[in-house]
């Protein structure tokens, strides 16, 4: 199921959402222009490498230009391919503007980056010895989805289901579409625990625990930052 849009208008111009999309696209263009060897070195430097993060938490200095804790932020702007980038930016485009509308620009940016950090730490918790770089905006965007489903559960999501040459459309409430998405991430995360499988980060695949963790933290942080507050209380935060 691929979402196309929602029927949830905003009252502001979502400058932060636009800026995040632009930053991710520019970072990907930079990656795309690196030769393979340089790209590999760059990703190991700027993405989260769980084993290196574990060592840094233990007080071991790795003497790298980018401290391991900083990769919890830099990794959020990196992607492993065009489809990885396009899928993430599509979800951010559709759902991010409404969350930014309710939180205000400054709080939304804080919320987004915090969800990304906490999502990466969730994935790290389940794969602390992995040497595979973890990267992408999906953990932060999962946080956006967690906030969205709380604030706009009945908003209508329009999407398509690719079936070969046919692309039937569907209209479902957000709680159904995003709830199904979350259950899928949690299921695959559980399926990868203590199991030899092609699912998850150990095979260089998808960081399902980052998705599930980001979603849960987004549902927690959103209300704490004023997701349900009146706008009159939020205007001081650059509404």
From TrEMBL:
Compartments in which it is found: Membrane
Superkingdom, taxonomy of origin: Bacteria
Predominant cellular place of this UniProt entry's protein: membrane
GO MF: peptidase activity
TM segment ranges: 12-30, 77-96, 108-126, 132-150, 157-183, 206-228
Span of domain Peptidase S54 rhomboid: 68-225
GO biological process: one example: proteolysis
UniProt similarity note: Belongs to the peptidase S54 family.
Protein name: Rhomboid family intramembrane serine protease
UniProt source species: Nostoc favosum CHAB5714
